[in-house]
Structures are given as structure tokens and as C-alpha cells.
Amino acid sequence: MARTRIGSFPIGFRRAGSDWQKNLAHVIAFAKDNGFEGIDVGDLAAEEIKPILAAGLTVGSVDMKRPWSAVASGDAGKRKDAVAAAAEHIKSVAALGIRNFFAVVFPDDDSRDRRENFRLAVDGYSRLAESISACGARIVMEGYPGSYPYYPALCCTPESLRAFFREAASEALLINYDPSHLIRMGIDPVRFLREFGARIGHVHAKDTQILEESLYEFGNLQPATLAKPHGFGGYHWRYAIPGHGEAPWAEILGALKELDYRGLISIEMEDEDYNNTEAGEKRGMIEARDFLAGA
Length: 295
Known about the structure:
Layout: E1 11-14, H1 24-33, E2 38-41, H2 46-54, E3 58-63, H3 76-94, E4 100-103, H4 114-132, E5 138-142, H5 158-167, E6 173-177, H6 179-185, H7 189-196, E7 200-205, E8 207-210, H8 212-218, E9 237-240, H9 249-258, E10 265-267, H10 278-294
Parallel strand pairs: 1-2, 1-10, 2-3, 3-4, 4-5, 5-6, 6-7, 7-10
Antiparallel strand pairs: 8-9
Helix pairs in contact: 3-4, 7-9
């Protein structure tokens, strides 16, 4: 089975929404045939997840019930109902021994003041953490910042995460570490690990390439006037498979080893050079696997 050279972490991948990946049996067969040890899945019910476990694969994470923004709704009743629905799903899946439940901390109103959205997210996620703590489940929050013009997601930067963990003090709230988002935002991914290592619950293997000529051409703030953005990216940056971007993977894996991280390294296939065809996505996953196995 595929493992990283540094740290000997098991390598898996995140199941996406392309046509071939909608067939779960096909995804399981691809994982088994190519030495992947686990899969991250969407918000599947427990019965749908059982075939993955029966095939001898691990489940790195299961998506929390959508819409994620409802957990931070400005309407107290909607927030309460969303927490209850998320907790019910989490508890049923956690009975299979699965611990990690993936979400991005989106607000329900992108234009609302960020301080208020932060307060609502603290309330909703604190209540959810309290509801699921007894079953051993954890929410692993990814720092995807969202889209222009608001970039509204919370818990993406050191500043907001420090405050969130201070206000929502629960061991059931952790980080889904993805260096691609940190690099995109100009945050040192290794320094981030050093600071927040105790809170890393899951890891995505995705990279970001910074396109220096495009950075000169378009800058890093406004959208371009005439040019189109990159697929899975912007004008001066794009997401890429590990090894095709700026992430220092040897340092990252070394830091995770020092932190005694025990989970999956899960490839998230978002790269315009590979996506949008079955053959290309499979090739990208295998190349990423091979890079990580040698890193």
C-alpha cells in the first residue's frame, strides 16, 4: 500500500463529483488497484460507507451535512435545526468508527460584518461540538477562503483560528490542513503547522503554483480586465497536484512526523492540467501518489 517516505503516512484521495467518481464501486476498485489506503467521501449515510470499509479501505473523512452555512445562520432557529441535523448524521456514521467530519466554516450571509459571522459560527460550531463529543467524532475545518469579492469563509488564517479555538474551546473542533489554501493566501504552511500542529485532525495533499509573470501582469488584488482565470485557480495562481507547486513537502511531512500525526494524507485532485477527464484525473492521482511516496 502507498505510504509517504517521510513519516510513512498512508496515502489516499478525496472523492470528487466527476462522472466516473459517482460510481462508488468504481472508485473503490481504483483505490484498491492503485495502492491507496483510504478515501475521503461526501456526506454519505452509514449504509453507503460500509462497502468502503468492507473493501479494507479506511475513510479519512466524511463531509458534514450541507449546507454548512446553516450552522452559522443568523436565524437562531435555523442554526439550531442545522446543528441537530448535522449531529444526527455524524453520530450515525461515527458508529462505524469514523472520526473526521469535514466542513468549511461558511456564513449564511457573505455581506454581513465578519465579526458578526464569526460570533454566529462560534455559537453554532460550539453547540455542534458539544452534541458530538461523546461519540468521539471531530469536525475538521478546511481553510478554503471562499470566492471573490467577499472571501467570506472563517477559520482560514492564524488570526481567526486562534480566536475561534479560544472562543469555541472544544477538542472536537480541529483543522483539515491543506497547504494549498495557505500558500494562495501568502501564509507560511510550515510555520502554520508549528503553531497549530496540536489541532491538525486531517490532511489534504494539494499544492498551489504561483505564476510570477501573471502576478506582474495582473497583481494579486483585482480580477483581470480581459483575461480569464485558471481552472481551479485565479489569474496569478492555480491549485496543482503535490510537487507541481510551491509547497515544501519534505518539510511539511517532516513536521507532521514530529507532531506524531497518525492520519491519512489525502490527495485532493484539483489541477487544470489533469481534471475534467477520467483518464486525466486518475493519472493525476497516481502521479501525486508517486510524488508523495518519494517525498
